[in-house]
Amino acid sequence: MGADEIRASLFHLAVERNVAPSTQTVALIALRLLFRQVLQIELPYIENIEWAKKPERLPVVCSRSDFSRSDVRQILAYLDGAEHLMVSLLYGRGMRLMEGLGLAA
Question: Are the C-beta atoms of residues 14 and 51 closer than 8 Å to each other?
Answer without folding.
Answer: yes
